[in-house]
Amino acid sequence: MNIAGEYLKTIIQRFSESKKTAEKAIEQLAEGELFWSPNEESNSIAIIVKHMSGNMVSRWTDFFTTDGEKPSRNRDDEFVGDLQTKEQVMKLWELGWQTFLSALKDIREDHLLKTITIRNEPHTVIEAIERQMYHYSYHVGQIVYLAKMLKSSNWNTLTIPRKK
């Protein structure tokens, strides 16, 4: 068995599943619900999407040749609620995921132990991928949780329903 090849195939599959999970949650929401947050210190789904997209574009554009924290990235702006439509939210969502998944698909087995930088800190490609797995899963969980709170008893489960 080719462990490196299997790893690359599996991470692309897992990240794609994570993307679909968030999309199934978002599909259940009315447009206005994407912009709701429980309080001033919490993020709406739209802001989480904006942040994830900004992170994906920064980290995974020119992944092997430039630092993952691009000078053009304005992280603080990612937490400003200036999106107004579901179309805008989903356009950013797709931009981020397309950038990220495209970069993942370009990684070859012999790249996995290569060193790249994120915020001037060295990471192996495996470390960078695992860092993003943690980060993106964290935010997908937030998206699902917020959507579930908003839909309450009208929530359509995304996994195996209870007692089934």
Task: Explain what you see.
The chain has four helices and two strands, in the order αααββα. It is mainly alpha-helical and 164 residues long. A hairpin with a 2-residue loop joins strand 1 (115-118) and strand 2. Helix 2 runs antiparallel to helix 4 (125-151). 23% of the residues are buried.
Describe the structure concisely for a colleague.
The protein has 164 residues and is mainly alpha-helical. The protein has helices spanning 3-27, 45-60, 86-106, 125-151, and strands spanning 115-118, 121-124. It has a two-stranded antiparallel sheet with strand order 1-2.
List the secondary-structure elements in sequence, H or E.
Answer: HHHEEH
What gap, in angstroms, lies between the N and C termini? 35 Å
The structure class reads mainly alpha
Give the beta-strand count.
2
What about the largest sheet?
Answer: 2 strands, antiparallel
Strand order of the largest sheet: 1-2
Give the low-pLDDT segments: none
Number of helical runs? 4
Radius of gyration: 17 Å
Strand fraction equals under 5%
What's the pLDDT, averaged over the residues?
96
